[in-house]
Amino acid sequence: MNVPSTALILIGLFLVGGIISFVRQKMPRGLIMLLSLGAGLCLVAGVMRLAVWS
Known about the structure:
Helix content is about 80%, strand content about 0%. The protein is built from 2 helices and no strands. It has helices at about 5-25, 30-50. Helix 1 (about 5-25) runs antiparallel to helix 2.
């Protein structure tokens, strides 16, 4: 694993933790959806950057 892919995966996992926190606080659904979109994109980008795929 290289640094950019590791950073993207860690940011994605951090955002997933934020999603869980926001759901427990009953924050607006649009904000949760936006955060989940960002988390999903970070996780997918981190996995796609792994050297395993090439």
